[in-house]
Write a structure and sequence with these properties.
Chain lengths: 135, 191, 136
Amino acid sequence: MSTPKIGIVSCSGECCDVGTISRVATRFVLEKLRPDNTVTICLPLFSIGEGGERMFAKYFPTIAVDGCEKKCAKKAIEKYSGKTACSIVVSDLLKKWGVKNCGPRRELNEEGLELASKVAKEIASAMDDIFTRGG
Amino acid sequence: MQVVTKSIGQTLRATTVSTALQSRSRHEYRDYTMMINMNNDFYREVVDKFIFTVKKGLLYTENDVWIEMRNNKAKIGVTDFFQRRLGDVIFVELPPVGDAVKQNEPFGAVESIKAVVDVVTPLNGTVEEINEKLTDNPEHLNSEPYGEGWLALISPSNLEEDKQHLMTAEKYFELMKSKLQDELKKNKKEA
Amino acid sequence: MSDTILIFPCSGIGKSFGTISRDATYSVVEELRKDETDTDCLSLLVVGDEDAGCSVKSHRCISVDGCPNGCAKKTLEDSDAKLVASFRVVDILRKNRKLKPTDVTFLDEDGRKLSKLLAEKIALKVDELNRKGVVS
Protein backbone atom coordinates (compact mmCIF):
# COMPACT_ATOMS: atom_id res chain seq x y z
CA MET A 1 0.00 0.00 0.00
CA SER A 2 1.37 3.49 -0.72
CA THR A 3 0.75 7.14 0.00
CA PRO A 4 -0.97 8.62 -3.04
CA LYS A 5 1.51 10.44 -5.21
CA ILE A 6 1.13 12.50 -8.32
CA GLY A 7 3.70 12.61 -11.08
CA ILE A 8 4.40 15.95 -12.71
CA VAL A 9 5.89 16.10 -16.17
CA SER A 10 7.22 19.41 -17.37
CA CYS A 11 8.01 20.04 -21.01
CA SER A 12 11.04 22.18 -20.10
CA GLY A 13 10.92 23.38 -23.70
CA GLU A 14 14.15 25.05 -24.62
CA CYS A 15 12.94 27.29 -27.41
CA CYS A 16 11.05 29.84 -25.38
CA ASP A 17 10.48 31.43 -21.98
CA VAL A 18 7.31 29.47 -21.23
CA GLY A 19 9.35 26.27 -21.27
CA THR A 20 11.58 27.67 -18.55
CA ILE A 21 8.56 28.77 -16.55
CA SER A 22 7.02 25.30 -16.79
CA ARG A 23 10.28 23.80 -15.52
CA VAL A 24 10.79 26.20 -12.65
CA ALA A 25 7.14 26.03 -11.61
CA THR A 26 7.36 22.22 -11.45
CA ARG A 27 10.47 22.43 -9.30
CA PHE A 28 8.71 24.90 -6.97
CA VAL A 29 5.91 22.41 -6.46
CA LEU A 30 8.39 19.64 -5.67
CA GLU A 31 10.56 21.71 -3.38
CA LYS A 32 8.09 23.94 -1.59
CA LEU A 33 4.41 23.49 -2.22
CA ARG A 34 3.77 19.74 -2.22
CA PRO A 35 7.09 18.03 -1.41
CA ASP A 36 5.52 14.91 0.12
CA ASN A 37 3.11 14.17 -2.69
CA THR A 38 5.08 15.09 -5.79
CA VAL A 39 7.19 12.94 -8.02
CA THR A 40 8.79 14.75 -10.94
CA ILE A 41 9.01 12.73 -14.11
CA CYS A 42 12.03 13.63 -16.20
CA LEU A 43 10.65 13.98 -19.72
CA PRO A 44 13.85 13.13 -21.61
CA LEU A 45 14.36 10.03 -19.44
CA PHE A 46 10.70 9.18 -19.88
CA SER A 47 11.03 9.50 -23.63
CA ILE A 48 13.87 6.99 -23.91
CA GLY A 49 12.15 4.57 -21.58
CA GLU A 50 14.78 4.53 -18.85
CA GLY A 51 14.36 4.76 -15.11
CA GLY A 52 10.99 4.03 -13.59
CA GLU A 53 9.35 7.06 -15.21
CA ARG A 54 7.02 5.32 -17.66
CA MET A 55 5.93 2.69 -15.20
CA PHE A 56 5.18 5.30 -12.57
CA ALA A 57 3.19 7.43 -15.01
CA LYS A 58 1.20 4.35 -16.01
CA TYR A 59 0.07 3.54 -12.49
CA PHE A 60 -0.20 6.93 -10.83
CA PRO A 61 -2.01 10.15 -11.76
CA THR A 62 0.12 12.55 -13.76
CA ILE A 63 -0.11 16.25 -14.46
CA ALA A 64 1.41 17.52 -17.69
CA VAL A 65 2.83 21.03 -17.45
CA ASP A 66 3.42 22.39 -20.92
CA GLY A 67 4.85 25.69 -21.99
CA CYS A 68 2.81 26.15 -25.12
CA GLU A 69 -0.10 24.81 -27.12
CA LYS A 70 2.06 22.08 -28.70
CA LYS A 71 1.61 20.19 -25.40
CA CYS A 72 4.63 17.93 -25.75
CA ALA A 73 4.53 16.68 -22.16
CA LYS A 74 0.86 15.73 -22.42
CA LYS A 75 1.37 14.00 -25.76
CA ALA A 76 4.42 12.12 -24.49
CA ILE A 77 2.55 10.79 -21.46
CA GLU A 78 -0.40 9.72 -23.58
CA LYS A 79 1.94 8.07 -26.08
CA TYR A 80 3.85 5.97 -23.57
CA SER A 81 1.83 5.64 -20.40
CA GLY A 82 -1.80 6.68 -20.62
CA LYS A 83 -4.18 9.54 -20.08
CA THR A 84 -3.03 12.44 -17.93
CA ALA A 85 -5.08 13.40 -14.90
CA CYS A 86 -4.69 17.06 -15.73
CA SER A 87 -3.02 19.27 -18.31
CA ILE A 88 -1.70 22.76 -17.57
CA VAL A 89 -0.49 25.01 -20.36
CA VAL A 90 1.58 27.97 -19.26
CA SER A 91 0.82 30.08 -22.33
CA ASP A 92 -2.91 29.68 -21.65
CA LEU A 93 -2.45 30.84 -18.07
CA LEU A 94 -0.39 33.84 -19.17
CA LYS A 95 -3.08 34.81 -21.63
CA LYS A 96 -5.70 34.54 -18.90
CA TRP A 97 -3.60 36.76 -16.63
CA GLY A 98 -2.96 39.30 -19.38
CA VAL A 99 0.78 38.68 -19.44
CA LYS A 100 2.45 39.23 -22.79
CA ASN A 101 6.11 38.83 -21.97
CA CYS A 102 7.70 36.84 -19.21
CA GLY A 103 11.30 37.79 -19.72
CA PRO A 104 14.42 35.88 -20.74
CA ARG A 105 14.29 32.13 -21.22
CA ARG A 106 17.75 31.43 -19.88
CA GLU A 107 17.35 32.85 -16.42
CA LEU A 108 14.02 34.10 -15.15
CA ASN A 109 13.97 37.68 -13.95
CA GLU A 110 11.85 38.86 -11.03
CA GLU A 111 8.72 38.96 -13.11
CA GLY A 112 9.43 35.52 -14.52
CA LEU A 113 9.95 34.10 -11.04
CA GLU A 114 6.66 35.56 -9.87
CA LEU A 115 4.92 34.00 -12.83
CA ALA A 116 6.58 30.66 -12.12
CA SER A 117 5.30 30.88 -8.54
CA LYS A 118 1.78 31.58 -9.76
CA VAL A 119 1.94 28.65 -12.15
CA ALA A 120 3.25 26.48 -9.32
CA LYS A 121 0.21 27.36 -7.24
CA GLU A 122 -2.01 26.37 -10.14
CA ILE A 123 -0.27 23.02 -10.29
CA ALA A 124 -0.61 22.52 -6.55
CA SER A 125 -4.28 23.39 -6.76
CA ALA A 126 -4.72 20.84 -9.54
CA MET A 127 -3.04 18.25 -7.34
CA ASP A 128 -5.41 19.00 -4.48
CA ASP A 129 -8.29 18.68 -6.86
CA ILE A 130 -7.07 15.27 -7.99
CA PHE A 131 -6.72 14.14 -4.40
CA THR A 132 -10.19 15.39 -3.57
CA ARG A 133 -11.96 13.77 -6.47
CA GLY A 134 -9.97 10.57 -6.29
CA GLY A 135 -7.96 10.86 -9.48
CA MET B 1 -12.26 13.38 3.75
CA GLN B 2 -10.29 11.62 6.42
CA VAL B 3 -6.81 11.84 7.76
CA VAL B 4 -5.24 8.43 7.52
CA THR B 5 -1.91 6.92 8.20
CA LYS B 6 -0.54 4.96 5.24
CA SER B 7 2.65 3.08 4.63
CA ILE B 8 5.26 2.59 1.96
CA GLY B 9 7.03 -0.60 2.96
CA GLN B 10 7.30 0.13 6.62
CA THR B 11 7.46 3.93 6.37
CA LEU B 12 4.76 5.83 8.18
CA ARG B 13 3.21 8.95 6.68
CA ALA B 14 0.11 10.97 7.37
CA THR B 15 -1.85 12.53 4.55
CA THR B 16 -5.36 13.62 3.77
CA VAL B 17 -6.94 11.62 0.97
CA SER B 18 -10.35 10.80 -0.35
CA THR B 19 -11.66 7.27 0.16
CA ALA B 20 -11.90 6.79 -3.60
CA LEU B 21 -8.26 7.67 -4.10
CA GLN B 22 -7.21 5.43 -1.21
CA SER B 23 -8.96 2.51 -2.84
CA ARG B 24 -7.66 3.32 -6.31
CA SER B 25 -4.21 3.91 -4.93
CA ARG B 26 -4.11 0.54 -3.13
CA HIS B 27 -5.27 -1.24 -6.27
CA GLU B 28 -2.82 0.58 -8.52
CA TYR B 29 0.08 0.20 -6.14
CA ARG B 30 -0.60 -3.51 -5.84
CA ASP B 31 -0.60 -3.86 -9.64
CA TYR B 32 2.51 -1.71 -9.84
CA THR B 33 4.47 -3.74 -7.30
CA MET B 34 3.28 -7.00 -8.82
CA MET B 35 4.49 -5.87 -12.21
CA ILE B 36 7.80 -4.74 -10.78
CA ASN B 37 8.33 -8.05 -8.95
CA MET B 38 7.66 -10.29 -11.91
CA ASN B 39 11.38 -10.73 -12.52
CA ASN B 40 12.59 -13.69 -10.44
CA ASP B 41 16.27 -12.74 -10.32
CA PHE B 42 15.85 -9.80 -7.99
CA TYR B 43 14.06 -8.69 -4.90
CA ARG B 44 12.61 -5.25 -5.48
CA GLU B 45 11.40 -2.46 -3.26
CA VAL B 46 9.52 0.42 -4.84
CA VAL B 47 9.65 3.95 -3.50
CA ASP B 48 7.81 6.40 -5.79
CA LYS B 49 9.40 5.93 -9.20
CA PHE B 50 12.57 4.39 -7.78
CA ILE B 51 13.03 0.65 -7.73
CA PHE B 52 15.69 -0.67 -5.37
CA THR B 53 16.95 -4.10 -6.32
CA VAL B 54 18.76 -6.87 -4.50
CA LYS B 55 20.11 -9.64 -6.67
CA LYS B 56 19.21 -13.12 -5.47
CA GLY B 57 21.88 -15.72 -4.89
CA LEU B 58 24.63 -13.36 -3.72
CA LEU B 59 25.95 -12.71 -0.25
CA TYR B 60 25.89 -9.25 1.26
CA THR B 61 27.33 -7.11 4.01
CA GLU B 62 25.60 -4.51 6.13
CA ASN B 63 27.78 -1.94 4.34
CA ASP B 64 25.96 -2.53 1.06
CA VAL B 65 28.57 -4.66 -0.65
CA TRP B 66 27.73 -7.86 -2.51
CA ILE B 67 29.91 -10.95 -2.94
CA GLU B 68 29.68 -13.67 -5.57
CA MET B 69 31.86 -16.73 -5.10
CA ARG B 70 33.29 -18.09 -8.34
CA ASN B 71 36.02 -20.76 -8.56
CA ASN B 72 37.28 -19.95 -5.06
CA LYS B 73 37.46 -16.26 -5.83
CA ALA B 74 35.12 -13.59 -4.56
CA LYS B 75 33.76 -11.07 -7.03
CA ILE B 76 32.60 -7.97 -5.20
CA GLY B 77 30.64 -4.84 -5.91
CA VAL B 78 28.27 -2.35 -4.33
CA THR B 79 24.53 -2.73 -4.21
CA ASP B 80 21.83 -0.85 -6.06
CA PHE B 81 20.91 0.87 -2.79
CA PHE B 82 24.49 2.10 -2.42
CA GLN B 83 24.64 3.59 -5.92
CA ARG B 84 21.21 5.16 -5.79
CA ARG B 85 21.95 6.99 -2.57
CA LEU B 86 25.22 8.26 -3.96
CA GLY B 87 23.96 9.44 -7.34
CA ASP B 88 25.97 9.69 -10.54
CA VAL B 89 29.42 8.24 -9.89
CA ILE B 90 32.26 10.44 -11.07
CA PHE B 91 35.28 8.49 -9.84
CA VAL B 92 36.00 5.05 -8.49
CA GLU B 93 39.20 4.39 -6.56
CA LEU B 94 40.31 0.81 -6.18
CA PRO B 95 43.37 -0.76 -4.54
CA PRO B 96 46.17 -2.13 -6.72
CA VAL B 97 46.23 -5.76 -7.73
CA GLY B 98 48.23 -7.78 -5.23
CA ASP B 99 47.24 -5.70 -2.22
CA ALA B 100 46.12 -7.51 0.92
CA VAL B 101 42.69 -6.44 2.13
CA LYS B 102 41.07 -6.81 5.53
CA GLN B 103 37.45 -7.39 6.32
CA ASN B 104 35.57 -4.30 7.50
CA GLU B 105 38.33 -1.92 6.48
CA PRO B 106 38.12 0.55 3.58
CA PHE B 107 38.70 -1.16 0.27
CA GLY B 108 38.33 1.79 -2.06
CA ALA B 109 36.13 4.81 -2.54
CA VAL B 110 33.32 5.93 -4.80
CA GLU B 111 32.83 9.62 -5.49
CA SER B 112 29.82 11.56 -6.71
CA ILE B 113 29.01 15.25 -6.42
CA LYS B 114 27.18 14.43 -3.19
CA ALA B 115 29.92 12.58 -1.34
CA VAL B 116 32.96 10.35 -1.33
CA VAL B 117 32.00 7.04 0.22
CA ASP B 118 34.33 4.26 1.28
CA VAL B 119 33.65 0.77 0.10
CA VAL B 120 34.14 -1.50 3.07
CA THR B 121 36.00 -4.76 2.40
CA PRO B 122 33.67 -7.71 2.82
CA LEU B 123 36.32 -10.32 3.51
CA ASN B 124 40.03 -10.90 4.12
CA GLY B 125 42.22 -11.75 1.15
CA THR B 126 44.27 -10.49 -1.76
CA VAL B 127 43.15 -8.40 -4.70
CA GLU B 128 43.47 -10.53 -7.84
CA GLU B 129 41.84 -8.24 -10.35
CA ILE B 130 40.10 -4.87 -10.45
CA ASN B 131 37.49 -3.64 -12.90
CA GLU B 132 39.55 -1.26 -15.00
CA LYS B 133 36.51 -0.22 -17.05
CA LEU B 134 35.41 1.88 -14.10
CA THR B 135 38.33 4.25 -14.58
CA ASP B 136 36.95 5.69 -17.80
CA ASN B 137 33.35 4.63 -17.41
CA PRO B 138 32.38 4.87 -13.75
CA GLU B 139 28.74 5.09 -14.81
CA HIS B 140 28.69 1.28 -15.06
CA LEU B 141 28.46 1.27 -11.30
CA ASN B 142 25.18 3.18 -11.55
CA SER B 143 23.67 1.40 -14.52
CA GLU B 144 24.71 -2.18 -13.64
CA PRO B 145 25.81 -2.42 -10.01
CA TYR B 146 25.49 -6.22 -10.07
CA GLY B 147 26.91 -6.62 -13.57
CA GLU B 148 29.37 -4.41 -15.45
CA GLY B 149 29.81 -2.26 -12.35
CA TRP B 150 31.63 -4.97 -10.35
CA LEU B 151 34.65 -3.71 -8.43
CA ALA B 152 37.19 -6.46 -7.92
CA LEU B 153 38.07 -10.12 -7.60
CA ILE B 154 39.53 -11.15 -4.26
CA SER B 155 41.24 -14.40 -3.28
CA PRO B 156 39.85 -15.01 0.18
CA SER B 157 42.26 -16.05 2.95
CA ASN B 158 39.73 -16.86 5.66
CA LEU B 159 36.47 -17.52 3.87
CA GLU B 160 34.69 -19.83 6.30
CA GLU B 161 35.17 -17.48 9.22
CA ASP B 162 34.48 -14.35 7.14
CA LYS B 163 31.20 -15.84 5.89
CA GLN B 164 29.81 -15.58 9.38
CA HIS B 165 29.75 -11.83 8.93
CA LEU B 166 27.96 -12.01 5.60
CA MET B 167 24.22 -12.33 5.01
CA THR B 168 21.89 -13.84 2.45
CA ALA B 169 20.08 -11.77 -0.17
CA GLU B 170 16.83 -12.21 1.76
CA LYS B 171 18.30 -10.80 4.95
CA TYR B 172 20.00 -7.95 3.12
CA PHE B 173 16.70 -7.10 1.41
CA GLU B 174 15.09 -6.67 4.81
CA LEU B 175 18.02 -4.58 5.99
CA MET B 176 17.80 -2.42 2.88
CA LYS B 177 14.10 -1.80 3.42
CA SER B 178 14.83 -0.77 6.97
CA LYS B 179 17.54 1.63 5.80
CA LEU B 180 15.11 3.09 3.26
CA GLN B 181 12.57 3.66 6.00
CA ASP B 182 15.16 5.47 8.10
CA GLU B 183 16.17 7.65 5.16
CA LEU B 184 12.61 8.60 4.39
CA LYS B 185 11.95 9.49 8.02
CA LYS B 186 15.12 11.56 8.12
CA ASN B 187 14.22 13.40 4.89
CA LYS B 188 10.79 14.19 6.24
CA LYS B 189 12.24 15.65 9.45
CA GLU B 190 14.71 17.77 7.51
CA ALA B 191 11.93 19.06 5.28
CA MET C 1 20.10 24.77 -46.78
CA SER C 2 21.11 26.57 -43.62
CA ASP C 3 24.50 25.98 -42.00
CA THR C 4 23.09 26.66 -38.56
CA ILE C 5 24.07 24.04 -36.04
CA LEU C 6 21.26 23.00 -33.72
CA ILE C 7 22.13 22.30 -30.11
CA PHE C 8 19.83 20.16 -27.98
CA PRO C 9 20.29 19.97 -24.23
CA CYS C 10 18.59 17.24 -22.25
CA SER C 11 17.22 19.73 -19.68
CA GLY C 12 16.75 16.85 -17.28
CA ILE C 13 14.71 18.11 -14.37
CA GLY C 14 15.93 15.77 -11.65
CA LYS C 15 19.60 16.68 -11.44
CA SER C 16 21.79 19.75 -11.51
CA PHE C 17 23.40 18.33 -14.64
CA GLY C 18 20.21 18.90 -16.61
CA THR C 19 20.09 22.55 -15.62
CA ILE C 20 23.75 22.94 -16.53
CA SER C 21 23.19 21.36 -19.96
CA ARG C 22 20.38 23.82 -20.59
CA ASP C 23 22.31 26.85 -19.42
CA ALA C 24 25.41 25.98 -21.39
CA THR C 25 23.30 25.62 -24.53
CA TYR C 26 21.73 29.02 -24.03
CA SER C 27 25.15 30.50 -23.47
CA VAL C 28 26.31 29.22 -26.85
CA VAL C 29 23.22 30.06 -28.90
CA GLU C 30 22.61 33.47 -27.32
CA GLU C 31 26.14 34.71 -26.78
CA LEU C 32 29.19 32.73 -27.82
CA ARG C 33 28.09 31.55 -31.26
CA LYS C 34 24.75 33.23 -31.70
CA ASP C 35 25.03 33.59 -35.46
CA GLU C 36 26.02 30.00 -36.08
CA THR C 37 23.83 28.07 -33.71
CA ASP C 38 20.30 27.68 -32.47
CA THR C 39 18.32 25.43 -30.19
CA ASP C 40 14.89 23.87 -30.24
CA CYS C 41 12.71 21.80 -27.95
CA LEU C 42 13.92 18.23 -27.54
CA SER C 43 10.40 17.26 -26.52
CA LEU C 44 9.12 18.09 -30.02
CA LEU C 45 11.18 15.18 -31.31
CA VAL C 46 9.77 12.93 -28.62
CA VAL C 47 6.22 13.52 -29.80
CA GLY C 48 7.10 13.22 -33.46
CA ASP C 49 6.63 16.83 -34.50
CA GLU C 50 7.12 16.87 -38.27
CA ASP C 51 8.85 20.20 -38.54
CA ALA C 52 11.26 19.36 -35.76
CA GLY C 53 11.92 15.97 -37.32
CA CYS C 54 12.76 17.54 -40.69
CA SER C 55 14.87 20.18 -39.05
CA VAL C 56 17.19 17.74 -37.29
CA LYS C 57 17.64 15.73 -40.46
CA SER C 58 18.64 18.78 -42.47
CA HIS C 59 20.83 20.57 -39.90
CA ARG C 60 23.92 19.47 -38.06
CA CYS C 61 23.00 18.70 -34.48
CA ILE C 62 24.89 18.61 -31.22
CA SER C 63 23.54 16.85 -28.15
CA VAL C 64 24.32 18.11 -24.67
CA ASP C 65 23.45 15.60 -21.99
CA GLY C 66 23.68 16.00 -18.27
CA CYS C 67 24.37 12.47 -17.16
CA PRO C 68 25.38 9.15 -18.73
CA ASN C 69 21.76 8.26 -19.50
CA GLY C 70 22.35 10.24 -22.68
CA CYS C 71 18.71 11.14 -23.28
CA ALA C 72 19.33 13.98 -25.74
CA LYS C 73 21.76 11.91 -27.78
CA LYS C 74 19.44 8.91 -27.88
CA THR C 75 16.44 11.03 -28.81
CA LEU C 76 18.36 12.63 -31.66
CA GLU C 77 19.62 9.26 -32.85
CA ASP C 78 16.11 7.86 -32.78
CA SER C 79 15.01 10.82 -34.90
CA ASP C 80 17.73 10.08 -37.49
CA ALA C 81 19.25 13.48 -36.80
CA LYS C 82 22.58 14.54 -38.29
CA LEU C 83 24.35 14.18 -35.00
CA VAL C 84 27.85 15.60 -35.38
CA ALA C 85 28.94 15.89 -31.75
CA SER C 86 27.86 14.90 -28.25
CA PHE C 87 28.71 16.36 -24.88
CA ARG C 88 28.01 15.26 -21.32
CA VAL C 89 28.17 17.48 -18.26
CA VAL C 90 29.59 14.60 -16.20
CA ASP C 91 32.65 14.48 -18.46
CA ILE C 92 33.41 18.13 -17.78
CA LEU C 93 32.84 17.50 -14.10
CA ARG C 94 35.38 14.69 -14.10
CA LYS C 95 38.00 17.12 -15.33
CA ASN C 96 37.04 19.67 -12.69
CA ARG C 97 36.81 17.54 -9.63
CA LYS C 98 36.56 20.36 -7.13
CA LEU C 99 33.27 21.60 -8.53
CA LYS C 100 30.19 20.21 -6.83
CA PRO C 101 27.04 21.61 -8.41
CA THR C 102 24.10 20.55 -6.29
CA ASP C 103 21.27 23.01 -6.89
CA VAL C 104 18.81 21.80 -9.48
CA THR C 105 16.25 24.56 -9.98
CA PHE C 106 18.75 27.37 -10.31
CA LEU C 107 22.48 27.13 -10.91
CA ASP C 108 24.74 27.59 -7.92
CA GLU C 109 28.25 28.98 -8.25
CA ASP C 110 29.82 25.65 -9.17
CA GLY C 111 27.00 25.03 -11.61
CA ARG C 112 27.70 28.34 -13.34
CA LYS C 113 31.38 27.54 -13.59
CA LEU C 114 30.68 24.16 -15.12
CA SER C 115 28.16 25.66 -17.50
CA LYS C 116 30.75 28.18 -18.66
CA LEU C 117 33.39 25.50 -19.19
CA LEU C 118 30.97 23.32 -21.12
CA ALA C 119 29.73 26.23 -23.23
CA GLU C 120 33.31 27.07 -24.21
CA LYS C 121 33.92 23.49 -25.28
CA ILE C 122 30.76 23.45 -27.35
CA ALA C 123 31.70 26.76 -28.96
CA LEU C 124 35.10 25.38 -29.93
CA LYS C 125 33.46 22.35 -31.44
CA VAL C 126 31.18 24.61 -33.49
CA ASP C 127 34.26 26.41 -34.80
CA GLU C 128 35.90 23.10 -35.64
CA LEU C 129 32.85 21.87 -37.48
CA ASN C 130 32.61 25.06 -39.49
CA ARG C 131 36.33 25.12 -40.25
CA LYS C 132 36.34 21.55 -41.43
CA GLY C 133 33.35 22.30 -43.60
CA VAL C 134 31.26 19.53 -42.14
CA VAL C 135 27.98 20.31 -43.83
CA SER C 136 24.44 19.05 -43.45
